[in-house]
Amino acid sequence: MPLSRYAGFIFDLDGTLVDTMPMHLAAWQQVADELGFAFDHDWMYQCGGIPSRKIAVLLNQQQGLNLDAEQVARQKNRYYVSRLPEAKAFPAMQSLLAQWHGKVPMAVGTGSPRVNAQAVLKHTGLAGYMSAVVSADDVELHKPNPDTFLLAAELLGVEAERCLVFEDTQIGLQAARAAGMDCVLIQDGSPQWPAQAPR
After folding, report:
1. Is residue 1 scored above 70 in pLDDT?
2. pLDDT class for 48, splitting at 50, 70, 90?
3. Around Cβ 33, how many Cβ atoms within 10 Å?
4. What one-character DSSP code corresponds to residue 167?
5. Are residues 73 and 113 in the same domain?
6. Nearest 5°: CA angle at 27, between 23 and 30?
7. In the predicted structure, residue 199 carries a pLDDT above the cut 90
8. Which of 12, 14, 19, 168 is catalytic?
9. Are 105 and 184 found together in one domain?
């Protein structure tokens, strides 16, 4: 895959750079058990990139619930943060970052709150690779909307169509395509080449 054709790389964080999705899912399972709503592992995984309060709104719509979205998000975040010391970077992705660091500017575009994203990047040693971080706090319209990736490209000073996105969910892929960016899907911590072009 000729990565040199791109002028900027944008990475999702959870499940793409760092193996944190099991931690997110365990936190959601704990909240579901306590509040009594149905937990669908596969559906919740595909919500990676969507802020927790918006996931709570989707749960209300799907299951006919009346959850307090902000309270649910705080509760889920508390359980997730307690697991942060478990966070580890995927070796293949860390190698890719090391290989291209200093050659191509790189950014994170995540649906996590900034404080969590920065803590994960610092804990895993990935912070030094990134020229910019766009979090859930930085945009109004989150994935599958393109705003997260478009802002990341702007902060890198790179035209959107010259950026390559790395993502692990279909929602992230939709966001990349909406931004007019090629996207590489990550599965089990490894890139699935070739990149998928916007439709």
Report:
1. no
2. confident
3. 10
4. E
5. no
6. 140
7. no
8. 12
9. yes
* Counted domains in the chain: 2
We report the CATH number of the domain holding residue 46 as 1.10.150
Q: What is the pTM of this model?
A: 0.91
* Residue 85 burial by Cβ neighbours in a 10 Å radius (0-12, 13-18, 19+): exposed
**85 has pLDDT over 90:** no
Q: Which domain holds residue 176?
A: 3-20+87-196
Block residue for tokens 């599958």 = 144
Q: Mind listing the pLDDT tens digit for each residue in 143-173?
A: 999 999 999 999 999 999 999 999 999 999 9
Q: Which of 36, 61, 84 is the last residue of a domain?
A: 84
12 a catalytic residue: yes
Q: Which amino acid is at 52?
A: S
**Of the residues 84, 106, 121, which one is the last residue of a structural domain?**
84
